[in-house]
Design goal:
This protein has about 220 residues and is an alpha/beta fold. It has nine helices and eight strands. Strand 5 and strand 6 form a beta hairpin. The two termini are about 20 Å apart.
């Protein structure tokens, strides 16, 4: 699960001094082992997403148990696209999101909501430009073995304490079968969201098929699987 400074530098196409700058001055979490920094992939993904830094999804391949064949488009078809969610606070809109998730049997929706709110209290999951990816550090585990992503468009702009100061109107939430698939799929989604044309489409959403076609095209052209 851990990366060396040199590994991250190669994957992110920067020099090692840049990675060390991220650690010492930009808040990238890391710990020292034998006088060398080690970076947890989960921490890296959350930090990069919050900072708007593009990290190739392949760096989050952490083992054969990850379903690397899972695509954002296929997961989104399972989770669905939902319009006009009501709510005036993060808690209110996240409650609406949870109510639309296909949760596994035995998972209490109220417990999940409080877990998502606790995660927001640790640091915003806002991606920037009005988009957030509320999630927990461990996945919301589904029983079918298949991943699902829900995309929700909000009625009202909500303050998610985003770094860029913009309120959020678009939320993505993941349901995955295991930790590594969760990490890999979340990285793919974050990578796609760096495409400005895709962000513009999300802010002026057409029908479901238009969104799905755009994601599928981007997966073919921008993600190396």
């Amino acid at each position: 699960m851990f990366l060396k400074v040199a590994d991250l530098a190669v994957a992110a196409d920067v020099d090692e001094k840049t990675v060390l700058h991220w650690i010492k001055h930009e808040g990238l979490p890391a710990h020292k082992q034998d006088d060398r920094y080690r970076i947890n992939r989960v921490d890296l993904l959350e930090w990069a997403t919050n900072k708007g830094i593009t990290i190739p999804p392949d760096i989050f391949d952490v083992g054969a148990v990850a379903d690397k064949s899972s695509t954002v488009s296929s997961a989104l078809r399972r989770g669905g696209i939902h319009y006009s969610l009501p709510g005036d606070t993060p808690e209110a809109v996240l409650r609406e999101v949870v109510s639309r998730l296909a949760l596994p049997p035995g998972l209490d929706p109220e417990f999940l909501l409080q877990t998502l709110l606790a995660r927001e209290a640790l640091g915003s999951t806002a991606f920037g430009n009005g988009i957030a990816i509320p999630h927990v550090r461990n996945p919301i585990v589904g029983q079918s073995g298949e991943s699902a992503i829900s995309l929700c468009f909000l009625n009202n702009p909500i303050d998610f304490d985003a770094v860029d100061g913009q309120p959020v109107t678009i939320l993505f939430t993941l349901v995955t079968p295991n930790v590594t698939t969760h990490l890999h799929l979340l990285a793919k989604l974050a990578f796609l969201l760096h495409d400005h044309a895709f962000q513009e489409l999300l802010h002026h959403p057409g029908n479901v098929e238009e969104i799905m076609a755009t994601i599928g095209r981007l997966e073919e052209t921008t993600i190396r699987r």
